[in-house]
Amino acid sequence: MRAIKRYDRRGFTLVELMIVVAIIGVLAALAIYGVRRYLASAKTSEAKNTVGAISRAAAAAYERETAASQILAGGGTSDAASHDLCDDAVQIPATVPQGRKYQPNPAGDFATGADSGTPTAGWQCLKFSMSQPIYYQYDYHRGENDPDVVGTPPPPAVGATGFDASAVGDIDGDTVLSAFSRGGTINGGELALATQVYISNEFE
């Protein structure tokens, strides 16, 4: 009589299946959290980069020599050229976008529009503009910090001889605001910028 060899056809137990499902669930949760964090970081990088660009524009404006236009009498001398910060700019946009993007208006915003300022004030003086949609409200103040930028600890005080470039946003539309700022102060005729962008409530 020929012997019949039987193969073990044992399957997975319920415990093993539950462990696999639990591991997949944990990995999925981590992936979802990572993607959300990545998307939020991508949005906040707009504010960090733009605030940095505005502060560099303010520094460049200060480095430019300004001299008054004068008609001199014979033998006269002109006033000395000076360095000066740009005066305040208009907030763009007027209200903080809530979970949405704002498209700057080329006829009314930044360095090319009605709110651009003058050669000594605002976005025109800073020679700064944006044409792509933005998540944040941007502002520039001379001689004071932006009162909308609050946090613990507060941002470094710029004082009467400084400036503050800032961004305020609500990227998830929950009315809780995040704030970013970078300032600078004139010390002994030299403009010293803050070493880092100040961040408050980055991801709300």
Describe the structure.
The chain is 27% helix and 16% strand. Strands 1, 2, 3, 4 and 5 form a five-stranded antiparallel beta sheet that branches. The protein has one domain. The protein contains two helices and five strands, in the order H-H-E-E-E-E-E. With 204 residues, it is α+β, with helices and mostly antiparallel strands. The mean pLDDT is 88. The longest helix is centred in the N-terminal third of the chain and has 50 residues, at 14-63. It is elongated and about 110 Å long. The chain has helices at residues 14-63, 122-126, and strands spanning 136-142, 162-169, 178-187, 190-193, 198-200. The termini are far apart.
Instruction: Calculate Rg over CA atoms.
Output: 28 Å
Tell me the overall shape.
elongated
Mean pLDDT: 88
The proportion of residues forming helix, as a percent range, comes to: 25-40%
Kindly name the structural category.
alpha+beta
Poorly predicted segments: none
Q: Give the terminus-to-terminus CA distance.
A: 79 Å
Largest sheet: 5 strands, antiparallel
